[in-house]
Amino acid sequence: RAEPLLADAGHHVTAMIRNPQQQEDVKAAGATPLVLDIEHATREQLVDAFTGMDAIVWSAGAGGGTTAERTYAVDRDAAIRTVDAAQSAGVSRFLLVSYFGAGPDHGVAPDDSFYAYAEAKAEADQHLKNSDLDWTIVAPSSLTDDAGTGSIRTKEQGATGESVSRDDVAAVLAAALDTPSTSRRMIEFDQGDTPI
C-alpha cells in the first residue's frame, strides 16, 4: 500500500520480497522488486542491497500465529540486522513499523501468544533508537482493511489504541519519510480527524 504513494511522491522504490511470484504485483505498484529473504539474509547481503539507497522503510514481520522462534527471527533479529546494515551501507533515514503500546513496559504476560511479538518489537525499536540513524517509528493501533480516511489521532492527541486502516498507515509512512519533524520520534496513532 505504501509503494504507490512513495512512487507518486517521486521516490524510486525498491521492495524487498521473499516470494518471486510477487514481483509483478510490486511492479504494478510502481516499485522495483528485489527478491531477498529478510529472515535469512546476512548482514553483508543487506549492506549490498542497501548501498546507494537514501532510506529504509521496514514493514516486514513474521505475521500473526507463527512460532515464537520465527517471530524473534524476523521481528527482532532481522530488524536489528537491517538497522546495522543500513548504518554500514551509509543509509541515514530509517522508518520502522511497530505497534501502539510497544516498548519494554508493554505489559504483555509471558503466557500470552502476543508476548514474543511484544518482546521482539521492544528490542528492535530500542536498537533503532540507540543507533545513529535518522529514525522514525510508526506505531499504529490495530489494523483494519477499511478504506483510508487520510486522518489520524496521535497518542499525544488522545489516541487510545483502538484501530486504524492499513491505507492510513501507508499514508503515514509516506508522509513521515519526507517530514523532518518526525525524526527521532515514535508516532503512536489510531483513526482520528487530524489530516495526516
Describe, in plain words, how this protein is organized in 3D.
With 196 residues, this protein is of the alpha/beta class. It is 36% helix and 22% strand. It is built from six helices and ten strands. The chain has a six-stranded mixed sheet with strand order 3-4-5-9-7-10, sandwiched between helices. A two-stranded parallel ribbon has the order 1-2. Helix 5 (115-129) links the parallel strand 4 (93-97) and strand 5 (134-140). It is globular, with a radius of gyration of 16 Å. The two termini are 15 Å apart.
Q: Average the pLDDT over all residues and give the rounded result.
A: 96
Strand order in the sheet with the most strands: 3-4-5-9-7-10
Task: Please trace the helix and strand order, writing H or E for each element.
Answer: HEHEHEHEHEEEEHEE
Which structural class do you get from the secondary structure elements? alpha/beta
Please estimate the helix content.
25-40%
Query: What radius of gyration results from the CA coordinates?
Result: 16 Å
Low-confidence sequence ranges: none
DSSP, total strands: 10
Largest β sheet strand count, sense and barrel closure: 6 strands, mixed
N→C terminal distance: 15 Å
Instruction: Give the CA-based shape.
Output: globular
Tally of alpha and pi helices: 6
Residue share in β-strands = 15-25%
